[in-house]
Specification:
Shape: globular
Number of helices: 8
Number of strands: 0
Helix content: over 70%
Order of helices and strands: HHHHHHHH
Distance between the termini: 68 Å
Bound molecules: fe (ii) ion
Strand content: under 5%
Mean pLDDT: 84
Radius of gyration: 20 Å
Length: 230
């Protein structure tokens, strides 16, 4: 009996299927996304919650101040990138509930951005000069992840937050013990990131393939190592 055309190619075709492109964004969506980008990179962030660093500003030696300043610059850049990932994912999200959840999480992340910004100026440090670049790159990565569908997009949030939690643990160990203000901020950020990851998983986030997680880790390593210096 002759084989029907395409027999045996089903699994191959499924693997090779390209992500379906989302519908073209409206002009409103484009303007709102550009506005969010400019605010994230250029405007001072405004927190909805008070900073966890509410106690007296700790006295640090010059070496401690420099080390804390460099570490908090890395964390500030991480929060700029987090804004961009969420904005990129929301821009492409197909489902309205997913988009609302992503934008809600981005607003919560604004607190982290504002707390890091304030702490950076207390430490007489400055944000990374490359933040516009990190924003653009992260937005593109977030948008790309979201083209694979909302489950992958939410899985990407969960994996990102898991990696951020690991990164914050490393920074909490590296911070000068005397810097109680930066420590309080990073501890609250870690608590928030864990709950963002859990929310994304319970909203249906898919487990990402191991090579994708490894690639994400390498990409964020380039960003964090660069932001420490520049
Ligand atoms: Fe954050
Ligand atoms: Fe988060």
């Amino acid at each position: 009996m002759p084989r029907a055309r395409g027999d045996g190619w089903g699994p191959y075709n499924r693997v090779m299927q390209l992500p379906s492109l989302p519908p073209l964004p409206s002009l409103d969506a484009l303007i709102s996304t550009a506005d969010k980008a400019l605010r994230s990179v250029l405007a001072p962030a405004r927190a909805a919650r008070p900073s966890p660093a509410s106690g007296p500003v700790p006295a640090l030696t010059e070496a401690q101040r420099r080390e804390s300043g460099a570490l908090m610059r890395v964390n500030h850049t991480g929060e700029v990138a987090a804004q961009a990932l969420y904005h990129g994912q929301a821009f492409v999200a197909r489902n309205e509930n997913t988009r609302a959840m992503l934008l809600h999480a981005a607003r919560e992340e604004t607190d982290h951005l504002a707390w890091c910004e304030t702490r950076l100026s207390e430490l007489q440090s400055r944000p990374s000069l490359l933040n516009p670049l990190w924003y653009a790159g992260s937005f593109a990565i977030g948008a790309l992840a979201a083209t694979f569908g909302d489950r992958v997009s939410l899985g990407f949030v969960a994996e990102t937050e898991r990696q951020v939690e690991g990164h914050l643990n490393v920074h909490l160990a590296r911070l000068p013990p005397e810097d109680s203000s930066s420590r309080a901020i990073l501890e609250q950020m870690r608590t928030d990131e864990i709950s963002h990851g859990a929310a994304a998983r319970s909203a249906g986030g898919a487990e990402l393939p191991a090579p994708v997680s490894v690639l994400m880790k390498h990409t964020s390593r380039v960003m964090t190592h660069t932001a420490y210096w520049i």
